[in-house]
Model the fold of this input.
Amino acid sequence: MRTLLVVDGANVVGADPAGEWWKDRAGAAARLHESLMTADTSYDDVVLVLEGQAKQGVRAGRDAHLRTVHAPGNGDDTIVREARLGVEKGRVVAVVTADRRLKDRVHALGATTLGPTWLLERL
Done:
């Protein structure tokens, strides 16, 4: 069974202990994207969802196992959509976020969640 990891980009860069992401959101998104390209997450595919200014740091599209999606508005709605599509295709889906409301929404779909620290430890 194929696995899918959906990453809440804003939530993950916001969890960075350096805390400098807010000064350069596009740069923080680019660094996260680059790290995800080589990270060993054990998932077949990874979707990085970006919103707001962070979208300027990474073009939308696929790079090997990593697909970047630009949220047209609220990133949470796009994350839920990506998780739903994965579940509907029969994939095992996990979403990386610390957002409690978002966790509830993706759990209702049958997806699991992992905290940003889990991902940051693998980057």
Remarks:
- The mean pLDDT is 93.
- Strands lie at 3-8, 45-50, 61-63, 66-70, 92-96, 112-114.
